[in-house]
């Protein structure tokens, strides 16, 4: 069982044109593995429209499904692999981290052979606070590999207000499914230059919340985005029909001055 997916999706492979090779870790989101790996998913309302079931992850022969703690998922090899990786992470953290480090070393060698810069995203379909998980004598896996640029999207807005490893870039993900969450993320955004990622149902607007909107679907290299912008994404998979407030087609709540 491999942990890392290396430029095997249409979005991350776009980064090769800019000189980067991307490795992504896809785990079972929310409570699908029996342990909640997305602590803000319920509050942000993103678990139903999660990209976990977009693309091949949502395809199952004869529409077969199996039950998880998060409900029903398509019964396919992709979903079963994500659950298996998550169970290893949940039940044998040391073995998981050793395997992850081994695959990262191999990934670095692979990128170097192609004269590409290796970058890693560990929360492909999860929202784990990786900066708090030690590896060996290191405070985090990022610290163990300082030569690599790491990045993630997160809905845990408190993370972006705390010290992070110098080589770890976070973008904050927005949702209006919960007014408290929407106001909290707006407040954090107003107080910093952190970029806010917003999923739009239709065309991307030129501005949102007074900030320029850039097209986040052109690549997944969020650490290259200019600071202080809105990263706009088009709704995909189940998110196209989302009505929770995770997908935006109206003006956001306004933070009082």
Count of strand segments: 12
List segments where confidence is low: pLDDT < 50 over at least 5 consecutive residues: none
Spell out the helices and strands N to C.
EEHEEHHEHEEHEEEEE
What structural class do helix, strand and pairing data support?
Answer: alpha/beta
Mean pLDDT: 86
Question: Which range does the strand content fall in?
Answer: 15-25%
Please report the number of helical segments.
5
The largest pleated sheet is described as:
10 strands, mixed
Query: What is the share of helical residues?
Result: 10-25%
CA-atom Rg in angstroms: 18 Å
How many structural domains? 1
What is the overall silhouette? globular
Distance between the termini: 51 Å
Name its key features.
single chain, 257 residues, ten-stranded mixed β-sheet, two-stranded antiparallel sheet, 22% helix
Mind explaining what this structure looks like?
By secondary structure, the protein is α/β, with parallel strands linked by helices. The chain has one domain. It is built from 5 helices and 12 strands. It has helices at residues 41-44, 77-91, 93-113, 141-144, 179-190; strands at residues 4-6, 20-25, 65-68, 71-74, 117-121, 149-154, 168-173, 196-200, 207-208, 211-215, 230-234, 247-248. The strands form 2 sheets. Strands 1, 2, 5, 6, 7, 8, 9, 10, 11 and 12 form a 10-stranded mixed beta sheet that branches. A two-stranded antiparallel ribbon has the order 3-4. The longest helix has 21 residues, at 93-113. The relative contact order is 0.16. The model has no long low-confidence stretch (mean pLDDT 86).
């Amino acid at each position: 069982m491999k942990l890392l997916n290396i430029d095997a999706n249409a979005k991350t492979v776009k980064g090769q044109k800019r000189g980067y090779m991307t490795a992504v870790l896809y785990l079972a989101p929310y409570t699908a593995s029996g342990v909640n790996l997305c602590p803000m998913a319920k509050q942000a309302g993103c678990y139903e429209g999660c990209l976990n079931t977009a693309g091949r992850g949502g395809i199952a022969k004869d529409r077969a499904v199996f039950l998880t703690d998060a409900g029903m998922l398509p019964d396919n090899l992709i979903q079963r692999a994500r659950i298996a990786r998550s169970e290893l992470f949940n039940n044998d953290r040391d073995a998981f981290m050793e395997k992850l480090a081994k695959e990262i070393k191999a990934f670095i060698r692979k990128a170097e052979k192609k004269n590409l810069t290796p970058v890693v995203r560990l929360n492909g379909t999860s929202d784990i606070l990786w900066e708090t998980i030690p590896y060996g004598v290191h405070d985090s896996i990022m610290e163990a590999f300082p030569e690599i640029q790491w990045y993630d999207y997160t809905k845990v807005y408190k993370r972006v207000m705390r010290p992070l490893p110098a080589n770890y870039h976070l973008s904050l993900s927005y949702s209006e499914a919960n007014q408290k969450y929407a106001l909290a993320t707006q407040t954090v955004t107003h107080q910093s230059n952190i970029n806010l990622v917003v999923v739009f149902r239709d065309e991307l607007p030129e501005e949102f919340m007074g900030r320029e909107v850039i097209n986040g679907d052109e690549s997944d290299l969020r650490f290259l985005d200019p600071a202080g912008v809105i990263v706009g994404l088009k709704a995909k998979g189940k998110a196209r029909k989302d009505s929770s407030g995770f997908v935006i087609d109206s003006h956001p709540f306004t933070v009082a001055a």
